[in-house]
């Protein structure tokens, strides 16, 4: 009986988490502005190698600047 209750609780928590993610994404997308780059703009590239662990104390997360062609 307790295992059934535990499974129901787990399912309810998973559903609540999914709803929270959707609401949070909708709020973020509402305020996000698309970026348009033109030829000749200088841009920085995000270095995804450091995404999980972080770059360390003095290493930058960004590479560049690069010129948009």
Description:
- This protein has 1 helix and 2 strands; from the N terminus they run H-E-E.
- The protein has 69 residues and is of the alpha+beta class.
- It folds into 2 domains: 1-34; 35-69, no CATH class.
- The chain has a two-stranded antiparallel ribbon with strand order 1-2.
- The longest helix is centred in the first third of the chain and has 30 residues, at 2-31.
- It is elongated, with a radius of gyration of 21 Å.
Features:
69 residues; alpha+beta; 2 domains; 43% helix
Strand content: 15-25%
Number of helices: 1
Shape: elongated
Number of strands: 2
Largest sheet: 2 strands, antiparallel
What's a concise summary of this model?
The chain is an alpha+beta fold. It has one helix at 2-31; strands at residues 42-46, 62-67. It folds into two domains: 1-34; 35-69, no CATH class.
Strand and helix layout:
Elements: H1 2-31, E1 42-46, E2 62-67
Antiparallel strand pairs: 1-2
